[in-house]
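re the bet — no i am not wrong, look at it urself. input seq straight from the record:
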Amino acid sequence: MDLTDLFEQLRCPDEHHAELAYDAAAQTLTCTVCQRVFRIEDNVPVLLLDEAK
């Protein structure tokens, strides 16, 4: 399993647990419901609500 496959399995940590859209160029994951943007640092997604944009 590569990182793209792993990122596609992740869900938003907010209560709705929606899918996250992976943007390889921006190194982000964006919630498809609340539109929060989570950064990826050194191939590790930072899924902290208080650090999302």
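see?? Residues 3-51 form a domain with the N-terminal domain of TfIIb fold (CATH 2.20.25). told u. also The radius of gyration is 10 Å. so pay up
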